[in-house]
Amino acid sequence: EKSGYEHFMLKEIFEQPKSVHDTMRGRLLVDEGVIKMAGIWDHIEKFKNANRIIIIACGTSWHAGLIGEYLIEEYARIPVEVEYASEFRYRNPIITDKDVVIAISQSGETADTMAALKLAKERGAFIYGICNVVDSSIARITDAGSYTHAGPEIGVASTKAFTAQLTILSLIALKLGKHNGNLGNADFMSLIAELDAIPKKIEDVLSSTHELVQNIAKDFVQATNFLYLGRGYNYPAALEGALKLKEISYIHAEGYPAAEMKHGPIALIDENMPIVIIAPKKGHYDKIVSNVQEIKARKGKVIAVVNRGDTQVSEMSDYVIEIPETSECFSPIIASVPLQLLAYYIAVYRGANVDQPRNLAKSVTVE
Ligand code: F6R
């Protein structure tokens, strides 16, 4: 069942070229210049007339939601809020029949997400689901939706479901933006071509960084803390990188928007603090360069995820992981892959049970 891999998690990390491709298949028609999504198209008036979109999720799916917010606001220009299901359901939120709620859930069974949706439904919102498990409870309560076609995810730590969620959110944002005229045809065409190339780029990252990341992991087996930093689209990717590490290796890790460092976490930095920094060319690169300078001035150990051929950040960093370039909005899909591998190998070298981490369940059916 693990097809020769030591753990489901590693198998699932390596399945991502296929799971992302499967999630786009039949939807992204590059030659025709079309994104086909019946769930969106059949309810296009709901999206067109929405006052705002509220994305509801937990955990990794919530991180995907944050990236969805950036995507939908940038390309479709519809206001988006992202809520933890557990907070939303207990705070008497303002919600009306002019709101569209998007629920993101791999399992489709998360109790808090389900309860939040029931509340939104009672108040008349239109509910859209992004689930991986077909016919799950959340998939059934929604008015419409798009399945991620990631295939069964067995490892408790979500990997391929996350990148499939990002794929769906990208498709939705581009489709809505094209439809409502906020995204011009030329930009739309170049973005869909970029998106179509993502599976190949994931394959490239897997083969070019696998060994390197294993070696980096060996140096951090004894670490007790980690910071993960990113800006823009890669800020949620930093949150997700930190979550992967803490849940399977039990090393404390925090994700932060890089610019927030000086508002507190910079106090933590010394020669014992490893800092993973996501710094692709497109996306506030110059700002990231100065963040890295600030870290190095305090002797933090920098593990940088950069684009191939990078020099500025690379020269200052202790470890460099190179990934291929893509549009800024899709870069979290690519950048997440080496971070999944890093968490995986650190956990394996610490002897942790990566597929079944302590205290965690694959599907959280209690609140
Ligand atoms: C992290 C992880 C959890 C889930 C969360 C939501 O790797 O697996 O944080 O993402 O419990 O689960 P779903 O997406 O099934 O609603």
Automatic annotation (TrEMBL):
Membrane-spanning intervals of the chain: none
UniProt keyword annotations, A-Z: Aminotransferase, Cytoplasm, Glutamine amidotransferase, Repeat, Transferase
Catalytic-site annotation from UniProt: 362
Enzyme class: transferase
Residue ranges annotated for the SIS domain, each copy included: 43-182, 216-357
Localization: Cytoplasm
Domain of life where this protein originates: Bacteria
Catalytic reaction annotation: D-fructose 6-phosphate + L-glutamine = D-glucosamine 6-phosphate + L-glutamate
Protein purpose: Catalyzes the first step in hexosamine metabolism, converting fructose-6P into glucosamine-6P using glutamine as a nitrogen source.
Subunit structure: Homodimer.
Name under which the protein is recorded: Glutamine--fructose-6-phosphate aminotransferase [isomerizing]
Natural source organism: Chryseobacterium cheonjiense
Originating gene: glmS
Full protein stretch here: 251 to 617 of 617
